[in-house]
UniProtKB/TrEMBL annotation:
Protein name: 23S rRNA (Guanosine(2251)-2'-O)-methyltransferase RlmB
Listed SMART domains: SpoU_sub_bind (SM00967)
Keywords: Methyltransferase, Transferase
Species annotation: Hymenobacter oligotrophus
Any GO BP: RNA processing
Cellular-component GO terms for this entry: cytosol
Length: 269
């Protein structure tokens, strides 16, 4: 087993450097210029109650780019930097997010059965990185995350992913519920991994060799009930220990392996 150096044979290198990190920028004008220049921002923090024309312009451009904006007290901003931030701090994303609809269309045009992974409110950056590493190794075509309520994609996430976040496209969507409905309409079956599943993974009857969307939930409370309702299958991982739950990155690896196993043994078309 080559744990230290995962294989990257599935995906060509993306047009970005592995050394690129989630750099901080601060000040209203620099953040505005970054947005105008089309830079991918991971998140923007603005001082709550601030009245300034540049704030309104930043908010409008961020909304158009699906960039999360949080209105925060001055203590939060001072905790991020001691420099003159002018009530505005942002983080440059270490990757460029992929447009989901274009990516999916490309996979279908290539004759592939897409395998997408939706992460519902995964907030721990190391969990996120570990999941991305498993996703790359097990054939996931893209990871889908919400614009808000997800782990910040930073250096820790990149390191934990062992480079996988440079290989697997990441798509950021403003509303996971509408996104999953749209993907179902495009022909993808939806499998949710949940402790409340009505089928055990080893006895699952769903065929996971076709176009598939796997949903994994929050470390705290699992998959949002609104998203669970959209699932074609709710699968639980069998366990015999006393703890009763798995780390979400471990659970993701187990379920994705089952998807890969089915695809490897399926008759070739």
């Amino acid at each position: 087993m080559n744990e230290g150096r995962p294989s990257y044979k599935k995906y060509p290198p993306r047009q970005q450097s592995a050394e690129r990190t989630a750099d901080m920028i601060f000040g209203l004008r620099p953040i505005l210029e970054a947005l105008h220049a089309g830079k991918t921002l991971e998140k923007i923090f603005l001082l709550k109650g601030q009245k300034h024309s540049l704030v309104a312009e930043i908010s409008e451009l961020a909304r158009a780019a699906d960039t999360p904006v949080s209105l925060v007290p001055i203590e939060k901003l001072n905790g991020l930097t001691r420099k003159n931030h002018q009530g505005a701090v942002a983080f440059l994303s270490p990757i460029d997010y992929a447009p989901l609809d274009n990516l999916l269309a490309g996979l279908f045009e290539q004759g592939k059965s897409p395998l997408l992974l939706v992460l519902d409110r995964i907030t721990d950056v190391r969990n996120f990185g570990a999941i991305a590493r498993s996703a790359e190794c097990l054939g996931v075509d893209a990871v889908v995350v919400p614009s808000r309520g997800a782990a910040q994609l930073n250096g820790d996430a990149l390191k934990t992913s062992a480079g996988a976040l440079m290989r697997v496209p990441v798509c950021r969507e403003p509303n996971l519920h509408s996104t999953i409905r749209r993907l179902k309409d495009s022909g993808l079956q939806v499998v949710a991994c949940t402790e409340k599943g009505n089928e055990s993974l080893e006895q699952a009857t769903i065929d996971m060799t076709g176009p598939l969307l796997v949903v994994m939930g929050s470390e705290e409370d699992g998959i949002n009930p609104d998203l669970l309702e959209l699932a074609d299958a709710r699968l639980r991982i069998p366990m015999i220990g006393q703890i009763g739950s798995l780390n979400v990155s471990v659970a993701s690896g187990i379920l994705l392996y089952e998807v890969l196993r089915q695809r490897l043994v399926a008759p070739q078309q």
